[in-house]
Amino acid sequence: LRENVPRVIMIVTDGRPQDPVAEIAAKTRNSGILIFAIGVGRVDMNTLKSIGSEPYEEHVFLVANFSQIESLTSVFQTKICVQHMCSITQHGCDHFCINIPGSYLCKCKHGYILDSDRRSCSIQDLCETEKHECEHICVNTPGSYVCQCYDGYELEEDGKNCFIEDYCAVNNQGCQHECINTEDSYYCQCHNGFILNPDKKTCKRPDHCALKNHGCQQECVNADESYFCQCKQGFTLNPD
Question: What is the pLDDT of residues 103-116, one digit of tens each?
Answer without folding.
Answer: 889 999 887 889 99
